[in-house]
């Protein structure tokens, strides 16, 4: 399992008229988390794009547990739960950080497909697979 976390601060632009985070913004936070995770793994999406390799969201399912509000500090986590020939299944959790224990706000599962710019499935390249290997290398 790969575990990664990404911090998010809630700004006024993130909230709706009721003062809570607009529901679709959680998908943006999860996308940022995945992008930063790839960057940390040494995978450049820009280089892949020039090689006609794109990672696109094929499916997303979210469950909202509690709302986030203006100025709150959040943490978005990422765990790769499955890697197929041309897809990754990623579980995300969004937590509110604060004085108490982190509170779970949102859970989500996102399936990311590897495709060409023409929309045809492509195998995840071996060098990318090696960098994003979802097995826990630390567990010996």
TrEMBL record:
The answer to keyword rRNA-binding applying to this record is no
Is Phosphoprotein there in the keyword field?
A: no
The family classification in the record reads: Belongs to the 4-hydroxybenzoyl-CoA thioesterase family.
Q: Which GO terms describe its molecular function?
A: fatty acyl-CoA hydrolase activity
**Transmembrane stretches, start-end:** none
* Name of the protein in question: Tol-pal system-associated acyl-CoA thioesterase
Family matches, as PANTHER family: 4-HYDROXYBENZOYL-COA THIOESTERASE FAMILY MEMBER, ACYL-COA THIOESTER HYDROLASE YBGC
In which organism is this protein found?
Answer: Parathalassolituus penaei
Keywords on record: Hydrolase
- InterPro entries per the record? 4-hydroxybenzoyl-CoA_TE, HotDog_dom_sf, Tol-Pal_acyl-CoA_thioesterase, YbgC/YbaW
Q: Could you tell me the gene encoding this protein?
A: ybgC
